[in-house]
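Design job #97: recover the sequence.
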């Protein structure tokens, strides 16, 4: 399943993406907002890609590999949440592509997919308080702050986006 936006190609992750995943999650700036900001080991990257691919096999959707101009720049999309009501939205883009509007474009498409294709009623986004840029992207796309939670031992803001029958967002 391939989806396209104005500038992005969104596709199912493949084994050939492993070198990119390994390099991406080894970047200190990408993992800086984790409770433990240690970059992933190559073995952790193998497990990460395997989890994404398994989610696709089990549910028929998941986090997409995100490409622009024929180059892989990150991953993102919605997955089934085991901890919260609704789908979980997440994304990780290579820092070279931060500030270009790609995150907003990706989140917008993920919400459209969740609403139209999956008929989801709620999507959540989890953001560390220090990650103001990520929170701004979610809020620009219609997410609303719901509450602060502790996730993996660290304060985390839970934002949500609720769908309504008209397809228009409604604050949580």
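Job complete. Output follows.
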């Amino acid at each position: 399943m391939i989806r396209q936006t104005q500038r992005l190609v969104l596709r199912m992750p493949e084994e050939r993406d492993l070198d990119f995943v390994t390099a991406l999650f080894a970047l200190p700036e990408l993992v800086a907002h984790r409770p433990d900001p240690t970059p992933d080991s190559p073995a952790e990257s193998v497990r990460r890609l395997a989890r994404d691919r398994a989610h696709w096999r089990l549910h028929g959707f998941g986090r997409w590999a995100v490409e622009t101009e024929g180059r892989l720049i990150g991953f993102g999309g919605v997955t089934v949440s085991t901890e919260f009501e609704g789908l979980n939205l997440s994304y990780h883009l290579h820092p070279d592509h931060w500030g270009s509007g790609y995150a907003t474009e990706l989140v917008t498409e993920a919400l459209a997919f969740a609403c139209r294709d999956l008929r989801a009623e709620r999507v959540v986004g989890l953001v560390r308080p220090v990650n103001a840029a990520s929170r701004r992207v979610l809020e620009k796309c219609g997410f609303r702050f719901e509450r602060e939670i502790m996730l993996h031992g660290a304060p985390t803001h839970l934002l949500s986006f609720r769908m309504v029958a008209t397809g228009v967002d409604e604050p949580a």
